Amino acid sequence: MYSKYHGCGNDFIVGIYDENIDYAKFSKKICDRHTGIGADGLLIARIDEEKEIEMLFYNADGSRAPMCGNGIRCFAYFCLQEKLIDSEEFEVNTLAGKMGIKVLSREPFIGKINLGRPIFSSKVLDINTNKETFLNEIIMVNGWRIKVDAVFMATHHLVVIVEDLEEVINSDLGEKLAKHKIFTKGINVNFVQVIDNNRIIMKTYERGVGWTLACGTGASASFVILHQKGLCEDELTVQLELGELKIRYNDNKEVLMEGPAVWIARNIEVNQNNV
Question: How far is CA 210 from the centre of its chain?
Fold first, then answer.
């Protein structure tokens, strides 16, 4: 049985781990919007012998990714509804490490996620360069001269500040940057239009998915880069197509992301012969 949730339009299928399922193959089929349930990704809850909860995250193309900001809020809501946990504060294991979750409201669900500290290492970001970091760099794509900043914020991110978001969305720039050969494992590309020191609008082209309605770790990565450049205050509202996220640092310079999760459908029975 599976359930479906979304965080600001970023949608996910969520279920409990079954050792008999190849989730790389399963995610490609179940996330298909024509022959499956349809989603940006698949989240699987696995409980280990120590009773700790792990979130396995697969993109719609079957690739596994370290973390997902909108996804982990949906995952937390699922865990509460399925009574896998019963606490207002808990941790979830991911490939990017432990993520701290604080439930601010159960109905409607609002969660605050501690995503840890940003990492600027080109090695961690799997960038083919001799430079230790990849900040304020120029990439040429189809005649575009693009200034970019890369940061690992629970997963691989590129931040691009633009004047006209619509112009970028209607181009192939997102795909070209996400698949650029310098990024050896691909990269999520966040296009940011600054409204003022407290608010931006953002659109993300995710590796393994394409254009998405929202990206929580991308919003957090954008905050990190803008704050570093002095382009935003200590708390930033990220305006997405179907909602908003609030991002800030805590006293330890860890990034906190606050936002909603909504359940769409629960206890969906899946035809295993079809997927």
Answer: 12
The catalytically annotated residue of 31, 68, 74, 232 is: 68
Q: 74 an active-site residue?
A: no
pLDDT in tens, the chain (275 residues): 899 999 999 999 999 999 999 999 999 999 999 999 999 999 999 998 778 999 999 999 999 989 999 999 999 999 999 999 989 999 999 999 999 999 999 999 999 999 999 999 999 999 999 999 999 999 998 888 999 999 999 999 999 999 999 988 888 999 999 999 999 999 999 999 999 999 999 999 999 889 999 999 999 999 999 999 999 999 999 999 999 999 999 999 999 999 999 999 998 888 877 66
CA-wise closest residue to 87 among 111, 55, 120: 111
Active-site entry in 31, 79, 215, 232: 215
Told to judge if 79 belongs to the known catalytic residues of this protein, a careful annotator would answer no
Do 30 and 13 form a contact (C-beta atoms < 8 A)?
Answer: yes
Cβ neighbours of residue 208 closer than 8 Å, sequence gap 6 or more: 59, 60, 61, 63, 65, 186
CATH topology of domain 137-252: Diaminopimelate Epimerase; Chain A, domain 1 (3.10.310)
Domain layout of the chain by residue ranges:
2-116+260-268, 137-252
